[in-house]
Prior knowledge:
The protein is α+β, with helices and mostly antiparallel strands. The protein has 2 domains: 4-108, Archaeosine Trna-guanine Transglycosylase, Chain: A, domain 4; 117-202, no CATH class. Helices cover 37% and strands 29% of the residues. Strand 5 (77-93) and strand 6 (102-108) form a beta hairpin. The protein starts with a strand and ends in a 12-residue tail after the last helix. InterPro entries: Lon_prtase_N, Lon_prtase_N_sf, PUA-like_sf. This is Peptidase. Pfam families: LON_substr_bdg. Residues 7-185 form the Lon N-terminal domain.
Amino acid sequence: MTPKIKYLPLFPLGIVVFPGEKLNLHVFEPRYKQLVLDCLEEGKTFGIPTFLENNVGTYGTEIELLNVEKKYANGEMDIRTKGLQIFKILQFDKMAPNRLYAGGEVEVVENRLEEDILTKIKIRENLQKLYDALGLSNLYLELPENFTSYDIGHQLGLSTEQEYTLLQLLSEQDRQEAILHHLQQVLPVVLETERLKERVRLNGHFKNLTPPNF
């Protein structure tokens, strides 16, 4: 399969954007106002590579500009966007040719979407336990029946670094395994914390306890 290589305007941010994700942004810097206007005029997409530890990450997500929700008198904008597909930066330019914003030659990576049903069932079970423990049962109820790892990527309590690691996994089965491993690690900690909170709340209250029978 021939690699799909293209040149994209780049908008590095300290976040991870997953394919399919809807993202609203307030654009205020002159270089990125220029980027948005160029994308509007030319019908182009742009890329959001993750900015971590003062560096532009190698991986990012191609972004479709859906619409400009609001324009301000000073040129700032509120925009609505959607993540499309993952790319790997082959060459990064701090300034694209004759532009204020960054750009880069990127390769759209192959993303294998086949899932493992049994792992998915385990993820769903652990998510329900986690959300119930945190008092966030509504998140579980809102979970799509046929959810993917990207649908829950921001609802797992992952750090930005961990989300970036997830972005680099280019197989749904690998992402599922990583998510299940994370849930199996974090769930016992959350449950123990909830038990500790309950013990603290009960401290000092009158206790109706049944003595041991011996």
